[in-house]
Design goal:
The complex is a heterodimer. Chain A is mainly alpha-helical. Chain A has one domain: MetI-like (MetI-like fold, Orthogonal Bundle), CATH 1.10.3720. Chain A is built from 13 helices and no strands. In chain A, helix 2 packs across helix 13, helix 3 packs antiparallel against helix 10 and helix 4 runs antiparallel to helix 7. The relative contact order of chain A is 0.14. By secondary structure, chain B is α/β, with parallel strands linked by helices. Chain B has two domains: about 170 residues, D-Maltodextrin-Binding Protein, domain 2 (3-Layer(aba) Sandwich); about 200 residues, 3-Layer(aba) Sandwich (D-Maltodextrin-Binding Protein, domain 2), CATH 3.40.190. Chain B has 19 helices and 14 strands. Chain B starts with a helix and ends with a helix. The N terminus of chain B is likely disordered. The interface between A and B is medium-sized, with 32 and 38 residues.
Chain lengths: ~290, ~425
Amino acid sequence: MTEWLEKHVPKMVLAPSFIAIFVFVYGFIGWTAYVSFTRSKLLPKYDLKGTIQYERLADSPRFEVALTNLAIFGILFILFATVIGLALAILLDQKIRTEGPLRTIYLYPMALSFIVTGTAWKWILNPGLGIESVMHDLGWTDFAFNWLVDPKLAIYTIVIAGVWQSSGFVMALFLAGLRSVDNEVIRAAMVDGVSTPRIYMSIIIPSMAPIFLSAFIVLSHLAIKSFDLVIALTGGGPGYATDMPATFMYAMAFSRGDIGQAASSATVMMIIVTAIIVPYLYSELRPRHD
Amino acid sequence: MKKSVLLTSALALSLTATAAMAEPKAEVLHWWTSGGEAASVKVLKDEFAANGGVWTDMPVAGGGGDAAMTALRARVLSGNAPTAVQLKGPSIQEWYEEGAIGNIDDVAKAEGWDELLPAAIADHMKCDGAYCAAPVNVHRIDWIWGNSKVLADAGIDAPTTWDEFNAAAEKLKGMGITPLAHGGQAWQDATVFEAVAVGLGGPEFFRKAFVELDMDTLKSDQMKAVFDQMRTMRGYVDDNFSGRDWNLATAMVINGEAAFQIMGDWAKGEFIAAGKVPGKDFTCTSPSGGAYLYNVDSFAFFNVDGDDAVAGQKLLAKLVMGGNFQKVFNLNKGSVPARLDVSMDEFEFCGRQSNADLNTAIDQGFLLPSYAHGMAIRGAQAGAITDVVTAHFNSDMSSEDAVAALAQAVANSL
């Protein structure tokens, strides 16, 4: 009896959550993919109509803007969050006295929701309320910082807010990584008279490759599903200049009664995520020979 | 224990007895949740109760009705539609095609709705020739709201054509006043766009372009002229307009920071709430040459089971179109009654103006559905047009490119 229980209880306990995830995550991914091959409008329909939704998507200038924005935002967001996070971590790692409070200060933005971040930056970047207006009041009347209302530059304000929010988190990841580097190696290098920058470049940073990978995965999925930050900061505007695939999908599904377009854009987003995650899973899950 | 079981079954019995008498019941899905709107709905709720009905309120706020529509989809898909739903324009037909909408034709016939409603508005309320929805109000979209004091100081009259508007705007700009208070949100861009389109192109052009989606009209030189005017208007807004909410734009006109706003008549409520008198402290004129763009809110009646729910639909339909509700609701909401025989004596200046223009437009056949507010065409097509309008207004796109993009976007959305 005990033996039977030992064997089966873990399975029984795991089964409900397994079934729930199987149905509500993978089941609905499958459902969405299926619906993307129909001509569903207000309500889902189930007659397959080929790839018409994907053709419409390819013809849609708005979705093109959304994909371009995702590329701009994704690349810059990941790059700057990683670089700034790493720099902060290295600076904090210099055995300074106030590390505790400083670490908390930099990590704190992560505790805010993207809605709060977006709203705060909307006010800061608004030319009539924020930085520009303050500079004008201080007498620097030529000062211009109106990216938020410039359709060509508005996407970069989202990068600024996103980096502000996330670089503290990346810093925490790297700080943990820095602490786990073998001290013996570093001491040996110091004894050999290697300069500190060289120690970082040649020893510490290369040994943190897994941390870089984790940071990349976390940041890239934040970028792809970014929705609340865009809604709070620009509302997708000016025009639809800061639309992202996620906001495009929301507009199609919930404002326009075009479930087919929503499903096909969601499927495209999933393909992008898969393209990033699968190589990662492959490298993580392959049998190790060491 | 035994006693409580007895009590429960007695209760259950009495409940079944009531249901058998088909007491009118209505579950009403709507998104009128803000102050004035909630007060307007309460009028209906009280009338319904006074006529022996049981009203179950289902207010779903958020997203300008998007959240309510999501709730509606879930309810219809699970086979449990609400009795009545705040729904308007072509989306009534869309739901009818999904097989979800019922019929209240007998009430409409008995009450003579065909005589009471403008034909254009009655058509929205019919599914295959039979009434399936009841209108509550008529909002006018193509209004120019102006600050009387600013206009008097500048020595200009409230504009009634786009040429007059441009002349006034240039003068105001020279005086350092923002001519046009505008919020750079897609639907507000679309609101200005359709007012420009109907004013410049006339009713026939508007109908062909935004009701029939005629490709030649969408690509026409007239449409280019409309986009040219939009480009001119872009020069009349302040630098900071992006993403501004409509009521903040109204506030700019109220406190004299800007001279004009182009917005539906819900803007009037903001002026009145700020203690301004319609026709005296602020002007309401239309640049549409007799045309009238309407946005009609209505209740659609879904397929429901049970005599009590059907009785509830019939009672609700009758009350919604009743003279008292139409008057009180619209006094609260700033719109005018859809029913034409309601006395306008208690309405303020702009309301009476709206009603008079409505009657003139009916006589001339100039009564047109607003595309920007989902009355003329379905969501997918209206959204496609708005995408182009807002992309043009917020960039340096040329009118030629905008017209080409417009035709392509509409074709792609069909």
